[in-house]
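Continuing from the previous page of notes. For each protein in this section, the sequence appears first, followed by its structure tokens. Read the first protein now.
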Amino acid sequence: MGDQRRDHVGYGADPPDPKWPGGARLALNLVVNYEEGAEYGPLEGDGFAESMLSEVAPSPPLPGLRNRNIESLYEYGSRVGIWRILRLFKERGIAPTLYLVGRALELNPAVGEAVAEAGCDTVGHGWRWIDYLEIGEAEERTHIARTVETIERLTGGDCVDGGVDLTVVAVEDGKIAAHSIDAALGDAG
């Protein structure tokens, strides 16, 4: 009846009591994704520009051509949006979690300084904002290591690597690293 690696039942009608401090009944984690500049694009050596992950209706990528419309959306995020949202959180005394794409942070290191100053938790969200489904395990491991190194260097803090489309987590060398489910299953799935 197919592969059943997903849990569709959970705790059902009998969830555990998390016993949160002060009897709180809600835990809220505010997360900001920062991937600006790490998307597909000829300037990054890709054969096509991003055409799916944006506020613009998806369209087929045009081989070898930049998509200035998409580029401007992502650039707005790195030039204006990130600073606006960090300022809003700071005004309210909130330190959000930042899902950081390594290449995006490398392109705008001042964001790393601001994230550190704000006391944000950082999670590695891949080296590039690309589809990791077709990336081999060796390259994926290189991307994970590069992402963690970049985030730790530019924020001065520890990084938990959550990866992009990465679902199996293991501890290696005292750091949390993520590996693709296909690699973990030996491509049996």
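Done with the first. The second protein uses the same format. Note its length before scrolling.
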Amino acid sequence: MIIVNAEQEKRLEAPRTKRELITWVESKLNKPVFPISPQQSLLNNKEPKQPAYYDGRYYKTLNWKSYQNWHELEPNLRKELIKKWHSDARIEGVSTLGGFNGKHWLGWIDFDLSDFVSVTNMEQEIAVWQEKYPILQQAPHFTTPSGGHRFLVAWSSEPTDFGANNGFSLTPNSTERMGELLTKNGGHTLLPPTVGTNGKAYEWVNFAEYPPVISSPSAIGIYPVVRKTQTQTTNPTYQTTSTQWEKYLANFQYKSIEAVPLDCAIAPSNRELISTGVGEGSRDNTAAALARDFLGTENYLRAQGQRIEGTASELLQEFCTRCSPSLSDL
């Protein structure tokens, strides 16, 4: 597919092969090029979006946190890692990270179809957003197997209002979620032409050698989602409180026709930990336990068709930022 980068005023061709994609990510973005194959991972009973590769007859997963500072690794070591990870043809895909690349903070703006009432609604919102901020026409942009859209931009300084994976809105001080901003060093994304578990591939819509450099998310209308702190109810026997989840504990009927905040469905003790965090010495074990609760609850509710507000990654990120010291890289 031929696409245009207006800033460079020349026609560019998006990477069409895995080797071309590796070259672009490694040399232009200065970010890691993880091996990934959602379908091979399923065959090996692994998480589909977890980087993994074949080492002889063994299928091994990677902890991407070890490579967050890829730009600081010695060049020959990077070459050896790439050769090791991508030597088996069964690994057809590539993934990478957002975050600092030695020059800018890369951010992937992920519009998730599940946050919209329809494909048409999502595409209309994206079109209006791009028209309002023309610089986005210069951003690398691809579609996902689940029907979403993802844009790559470069921040001139570290975003302070977002964690690694936080929900965003296109309106200031809004509770309406449009997707996730994958930034900081923990923002992990799969790239075209990786094939998802449904047999559909990530596909380029627009390509540029380097994303447009932007001062901050708010400069292109990207704002943190504001979490509701108080919800009114029509039940005359119920006294409204300042705690969002208490409404649902008092009046919840499964399935609810309105979206339920994810933090109202998790264990009460874990809900309290979100707002308090923990001190050094118990952070890692606590975070792991919370992640299991948050992810398990979110996956169950979605599988049952229950609409929810918030995600497991958002709740975990909030917990991490409240720890002392914070676990900002989780």
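What the second structure shows: Residues 5 and 138 are 5 Å apart (CA to CA). The chain is about 30% helix and 20% strand. We return to this in next week's lecture.
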